[in-house]
Every structure is written in C-alpha cells, then in structure tokens.
Amino acid sequence: MKSIRRLLLRLLLVNLGTSFCVAIAHGEAKTRVYTVGHFSDEFYATLTVEKGNDVFRPGAVAVYEHGSRKLVLRVESEALTVDLDRSNQASANVKELPYGRQSVLIHEDFDFDGRADLAIMDGQKSCYNGPSFQIFLRRGRGFVKSREFTRLAQEYCGMFQVDAKAKRLSTMTKSGCCWHLFESYDVVNHAPRLLESATESLADYSSYYLKRETTKHGQPTKVEYFLLGPQDLRAKALLEFDLVGPRQRRVKVFLLEGRLEYALVNGTEQRVEFGYELHVQLQGDAERPPFVWSPTSRELSFRNGGYRYVIQDSPGRLGVSVHTGTKVTFLPGVESSRSGSLDRLNVKGLQNVVLAPNSSR
Question: What is the pLDDT of residue 118?
C-alpha cells in the first residue's frame, strides 16, 4: 500500500513540475515577432516587439538575406510602432509626409546611385516625438550606416522626402504653429549637400502674413510674404476679385480683429505683391494713414508715400486705381471673379477707417 502511495506521489510531483515548466516557458514569451511585408527580392525583415497595447513598444527590426537567412543588420529601439497590413504583416515602404504614417522599414534609393538603401526606424526622436530612422546605404552585398543621411532622419520631422527625378532630398522641421524650416539637398559622393534653406514665420509687422526668408549656399537671397490661408486667418471677407491679365493676381479686402486690411496676392500660394499692413501701416510711420471710405462713390482709398490707391466697387467699374501726381493707372477687375461687396462695409468700431468728407455714413 505504501509503495502505491509513493508511486502516486511521484507521478503527482512530475505532473506539477511539468506544468510549472510549461508556465515558465509561456511566461517567457513576452515578445511577438511579425514578418515585415515584401520589400526586396534579396532581403526580408522581421519586427520584434513586446506584447501589449501601447502605441510605442520596445523591440527591434532585423534584416536577413533570402536563402542563407544570414543576419544583415539589426536596429533596437525603445519605441517602435506596429503598423500591420491586410495580411497581418508589418508594413514596409509607408512614408506619408510630413505627419502621416511612416513604417518601421523603408527601402528606397537615397543617394541616387541606382541601388535601394534602407531606413530603419529607431524610435520617436524627431520633432514633436515623431518617428526617427537610421539610414543604411547599399554597399556591395550589404549595407553601411550613413551618419550624414541619418542626421536628416533624426533632426527634422520624420523621414526626408526623396525626389528621384530631380535627384533632390527635402526636409522640414517646425517650432509651434508659426515657425517652419524647409531645406533641400543634392547628393555628392554619397552624402547630402545643403542647397537651399527657407524659414517661414509670422511677419514682424502683422499676424496676417507669413514671412519666407530664403538662403542659398549660405547666402540670403530673398524675402517673400504670403497671406495666411482662411483656416489660419479667420478673417471676414468683404470683397475679392481677380485683376485682368495672365498673372493670377487677386485683390482681397477683409476684416480682422477690428481692423480693415487690403492685399494684392499672386497665385494659389497667395504671395503678397502689396499689403496695407506690410507696406503702409506698420513701417515706422508716426502718422499712420487710415483707409478712407466713401459710401456715395463706393470707393475705398489709402495712401502709401506718394501713391494713393483707390479700390473701386461701383456698377460698371470694378478694379484698383493707382494715383501718383497727375498720373492715374487703372487696374481693371474681372467681374465674374467677384466675391462680396464693399457695400457691406460699416466703419463703426473699425480702428483704421474714416469716412470721407461729406459722407452720410
């Protein structure tokens, strides 16, 4: 009887030990491995991350040779993203710029030598905790890390843009809503070379406009101004119309924060050819000339040095007159492009508009 009890006890201990070992083995499986979607006929890759529901997880991206399964390179990170495609594989070659999805692996020719290189995500180290990458250039049968290219994928906002046709690279970084830096590069001896920088910020004299300063080869070249878009400007439009001619020039008269503003802009970028705030109101003139509104003739005018500008919005006459001495130049507007009317202008409460003499309103 005792021998039977001994045997049963031994079997029980063996079973408990087996269960304990299985539990330990399951407990050690704290990571999950995903195959990275097809990106090359020569190489394949895996994404290993800790299990969990966090958006960013510790892990590694490893690249192997097809056939031999030899490890080519491996990049570890404390913050990788898991972006799966329809086949439940980790996505490759996803690069939505500047703020969209970017996959853990990008296979593309960065140095324009005709051979695809690799960008491997190494965390979220770019601007505003955006994705950052290490760049490996194709050399022989393998890859060599490039310090210069990696800098472009670390110090800006996510991955850089590649224009294969023009053989140009471009980067962007920002600070807050109102300062951006754009840079473009060519490639010399398998390294990026800075060609042009453009800094955009709010204009010194007015929050209506964006100022763009361009530098080429380290030398300042030009300063341009652009009218902010409707989503940023939040202005009340009074009158807009195109001027006759091929240059896509458009007149805009609008209200913002209790002030009236006039701008002549070019193209879809709304590059400013002339702006009241930029060129008249805040250029250090102690006597800031106001707008003058004549409701009888439906004319809105202002002065800029020796020039007098008159925006005309009357039946049969839409456009801008520029007066200097006895000379008058009329820039006709396109009636079919009109939006709004100066008839809606009410000077009450406006800080920079006065009524013309003998006006009833």
Answer: 98
Tell me which of 2.40.128, 1.10.20, 2.60.40, 2.40.160 is the CATH number of domain 237-355.
2.40.128
Dist CA 356 CA 259 (whole Å): 17
Summarize pLDDT for 53-102 with one digit per residue, the tens.
Answer: 899 999 999 999 999 999 999 999 999 999 999 999 999 999 998 778 99
Residue whose tokens read 């087996």: 18
Mean pLDDT check: name the lowest of 105-114, 158-167, 187-196, 273-282: 273-282
Domain with CATH 2.40.128 in the chain: 237-355
Asked if residues 236 and 338 have their Cβ atoms less than 8 Å apart, the reply is no
Assess contact for 352 and 290: CB atoms under 8 A: yes
Report the C-alpha gap between 1 and 5 in whole angstroms: 6
